[in-house]
Amino acid sequence: MGILEIENLTVRFGDFLAVKDFSLKVRRGEILGLLGPNGAGKTTTIRAIFGMVSYEGKIRINAGSIGWMPQNSPLYLNLTVEENMRFFTSLHGIRNAEQRIEELLRLVNLYDFRKRLVRNLSGGMKQRAMLACAMIHDPDLLILDEPTAGVDPPLRKTFWEHFEELNAEGKTILVTTHYMDEAENCDRIVLMRNGTKIAEGSPEDVKRWALGGEIVRIRVDDRQRAFRLLSSADYEVVVDDWVAVKTAMASPEVPRIVDLLKAGGVEVKEVETVKATLEEAFLRLVEG
Predict the structure, then answer these.
(1) CA 107 → CA 84, 159, 161, distances in Å?
(2) How far apart are CA 146 and CA 197, in angstroms?
(3) Cα separation of 203 and 9, whole Å?
(4) Which of 239, 189, 225, 212 minimizes the C-alpha distance to 26?
(5) Which helix or strand (DSSP H or E) is residue 193 part of?
(6) pTM, whole model, 2 decimals?
């Protein structure tokens, strides 16, 4: 049983279908990335999880507690960081609140700014304060909607270090992001387009699927002989300066290809594997 299960979710705004027959199972203990361009339905799906929009379908939550970091800040601008956190501890009835507040302030590197009004924080500091408030009750499942939007690269790296530490402690994380380098950190990714799921799997699986496999490029002494040998063995081959062979997965095929060429009298000088980047995969799949 997943910690979060969505079955055939459909969300309508008048005649517009924002999410169409979308299903998802979040496994306990994983980091799952929900990817897609603007308008793909990611945030609407998350709002449905929290009952903020009407929907058709089923949503089951099997977590003791959930933390949510939405795109729009829930923080009170005229309160300090510390006062906001104290308010959230009171909502959750947290014992030892001051100890928990200090712990999280240090975790998100805001301890020295705890007395600063939220309205006077930089964008990155506000994001860190939001993360601290979402984590205040030590949730089993943490749902993060574009948590690093507008955050500079060093701070994005710090955020993901926090997420990975939390995951190592057993927390399950569902995160939406536009950043493909961040999506590489996920155990599994789900790609949405126009309210529907178009791909699901590990980052490596999705990259292979988008490219139709992996490409092995080989530099040889006799390209035409190599082409004939590989073609006769039913490989899909293209010849330019190198010999390029498409495979479902390169690692098990490379030794076979090299042995085949050597047995046929072709000298293999260099071999490399070409994989799609996640950004290339994203663009291929989103653009259809």
Answers:
(1) 16, 10, 10
(2) 18
(3) 24
(4) 189
(5) strand 188-193
(6) 0.82
Q: And the tokens for 30?
A: 């994983």
Q: Which tokens hold the place of 284?
A: 């291929």
- E strand or H helix at 173, and its extent? strand 172-177
Residue 100's alpha-carbon distances to 111, 240, 285, in angstroms, are: 12, 62, 43
| Structural tokens at position 88 | 């959230």
Q: Which is the CATH superfamily of the domain at 4-207? A: P-loop containing nucleotide triphosphate hydrolases (3.40.50.300)
Q: Are 173 and 156 in contact (CB under 8 A)?
A: no
- Sequence ranges of the domains in the chain: 4-207, 210-286
Task: Decide yes or no: CATH 1.10.3720.10 for domain 210-286.
Answer: no
**Positions in the chain short of pLDDT 50:** none
- Closest CA relative to residue 190, chosen from 68, 30, 71, 17: 30
- Written as one letter, the residue type at 166 is L
Per the CB < 8 A criterion, the answer to whether 286 and 36 are in contact is yes
Coil, strand, or helix at residue 94? coil
